[in-house]
Amino acid sequence: MNEPIMIEVIYALPHEQVLQKLTVPIGTTAGQAVELSGIKEVLSGVDLSHNHLGIFGKLVRPEMVLRNRDRVEIYRPLAIDPKEARRRRAQEAKIPSKKSTETTQR
What we know:
The protein has a domain at about 5-80: Ubiquitin-like (UB roll), CATH 3.10.20.30. By secondary structure, the chain is an alpha+beta fold. The chain has helices at about 30-35, 40, 80-95, 100-105; strands spanning about 5-15, 15-25, 50-55, 60, 70-75. The termini are far apart. About 30% of the residues lie in helices and about 30% in strands.
């Protein structure tokens, strides 16, 4: 009854990703899985005090006990707040480009 479970730990950068498949004992937590995966040694920038964890897109705490076939995702900190990015795109859309102004003046 104490068979190990199979999980995955993944961390993705814009042009690179690391996926580790692991077999771990029942009762392993998400934080322990990240440690066991060795991803922290492969890629710099993985720091559980700054990176959030998720399982299939849902945020979890490092203390979350894993189930068979869970995929632990390590999320990078946001480069920019999504609301701010949307605000900037909307502002840029209001300013007509020089090329479109020349076309409408002909």
